[in-house]
Design a protein that fits this description.
Number of helices: 8
Distance between the termini: 23 Å
Structural class: alpha+beta
Helix content: 25-40%
Strand order of the largest sheet: 2-1-5-3-4
Largest sheet: 5 strands, mixed
Strand content: 15-25%
Radius of gyration: 24 Å
Length: 327
C-alpha cells in the first residue's frame, strides 16, 4: 500500500491555513475533519490538543486496519479551534450527526430513540413499557431514560428488576402464573405470590426508575453557556457562547447576540449525547450561564451535584480525545 500523501492541505473552517505539516495546526481544543481527494468527509474528531491528536492519527497509518485505509485516502485536514473542551464536544457531536462522515459509526444519530412509560397492569401493578420517543420532539420533559432500541430499554428494566428485587412477572417481563422464577431463588419479594402489595411494589419501582429519569429543563426559555479559554493559545478563540434550549444544543458562537438569536429559535430534536454533555458541564459548574432573552446572569441549579461518570464528557475517561476511527 502506498504511504499517505507527503503533503496534506490544512484549512481552518474551510480557509487555507499557513503551513503544510501537523506542527502548523493549533495546539488547542477543537474539532478536526479529514477529507479525501474528492472532498468527501472521512472522519470528524475532537481533542483538547488538535495538533497532538492529529499527529497520533497519522502515526496509526503504519498499522494495517480500517484507520490506515482512511488515512491513505486523506488529502485535507480542516480544524475548528474552540475556546475549551465543552465546545469541542458539542461541535463534534453535532457535526457527526449532521454531516455523516464515512468512518464515524458509534456516534451517528439512531433512527429512533426509546423511553419507558408507566402503565397500569393487572392487579394494580405498574408496568414500564418501552415506547418510541416522538420524532422531532424536544427534550423538555423528564422521560424515564433514553435508549437506542426497544431491546436496550427492556434489558435495562430487567437489570433494575434483578438489582432491586422487583418481580419480573408483574412487570410484564415474564409470562406464566404463580410465583416467578426469581421468587424461588429468593430474589423477588413476592409480589407474584401475594406477599407484597401492589402499592409497595409500585413505590419501589418508581424509586428504582428515578435514577433513569432525565433532568427536566429548569430554565425559562433558552440560555447561553459562556466558555472562556483560561490561557488562550495561538489560533484559539478567547471565549465562545453555546446556545441551548430545552436541552437542545443550538450552536456555538463568537458573538453573544448571535447566540441569543439561536437560543430563541425553536429547539431541535432530542439528542441523548448532547443532553449528557450539557448536563455534565452544568454539574461541574465549569461555565457561566446567562438568560438568552435578557442577557442577565442566572443561577446554575445543577452546580455541585458531582461530576458525571459518562465516557466522552469533559473530564471523562478519554480526557477529551475522540474515539478511534474504527469505532
Amino acid at each position: 500500500m502506498e504511504p499517505p500523501p507527503a503533503t496534506i492541505r490544512l484549512t481552518r473552517r474551510g480557509r487555507p491555513l499557513a503551513g503544510a505539516g501537523v506542527d502548523d495546526l493549533p495546539a488547542c481544543a477543537g474539532v478536526y475533519r479529514f477529507f479525501d481527494r474528492g472532498g468527501a468527509l472521512l472522519y470528524v474528531g475532537k481533542s483538547v490538543d488538535l495538533r497532538q491528536r492529529v499527529a497520533s492519527h497519522l502515526r496509526a497509518a503504519r498499522s494495517p486496519g480500517r484507520e490506515q485505509r482512511m488515512l491513505h485516502a486523506l488529502e485535507r485536514i480542516d480544524c475548528e479551534p474552540c475556546a475549551g473542551e465543552l465546545g469541542a464536544l458539542l461541535r463534534e457531536n453535532a457535526a457527526i450527526k449532521a454531516e455523516l462522515p464515512l468512518y464515524n459509526r458509534r456516534q451517528r444519530r439512531p433512527r429512533r430513540l426509546w423511553t419507558l412509560q408507566l402503565a397500569s397492569g393487572p392487579g394494580g401493578f405498574l408496568q414500564p413499557r418501552a415506547t418510541c420517543f416522538p420524532e422531532g420532539e424536544a427534550l423538555a420533559g423528564a422521560p424515564l431514560g433514553l435508549y437506542h432500541s426497544e431491546q436496550l430499554a427492556e434489558e435495562r428494566l430487567r437489570q433494575l428488576a434483578r438489582r432491586e428485587g422487583l418481580c419480573a412477572r408483574v412487570l410484564g417481563l415474564e409470562g406464566g402464573r404463580g410465583p416467578c422464577f426469581q421468587y424461588q431463588l429468593r430474589r423477588c419479594r413476592g409480589a407474584c405470590a401475594g406477599e407484597e402489595p401492589a402499592a409497595v411494589h409500585n413505590d419501589r419501582l418508581r424509586a428504582a426508575l428515578g435514577g433513569q429519569r432525565l433532568a427536566a429543563w429548569p430554565f425559562e426559555g433558552g440560555i447561553l453557556l459562556e466558555e472562556r479559554a483560561t490561557r488562550p493559545l495561538p489560533g484559539q478563540p478567547r471565549h465562545q457562547w453555546h446556545a441551548v434550549r430545552d436541552w437542545s444544543y443550538q450552536g456555538s458562537f463568537a458573538r453573544r447576540d448571535s447566540a441569543r438569536r439561536a437560543a430563541g429559535a425553536p429547539p431541535g430534536a432530542v439528542d441523548r449525547d448532547a443532553y449528557h454533555i450539557l448536563l455534565g458541564a452544568l454539574r461541574r459548574g465549569s461555565v457561566a450561564l446567562r438568560a438568552a432573552a435578557t442577557g442577565e446572569a442566572i443561577r446554575n441549579p445543577f452546580a455541585g451535584q458531582g461530576p458525571s461518570d459518562r465516557q466522552g464528557e469533559p473530564g471523562g475517561e478519554r480526557q477529551g480525545e475522540s474515539t478511534s476511527a474504527t469505532a
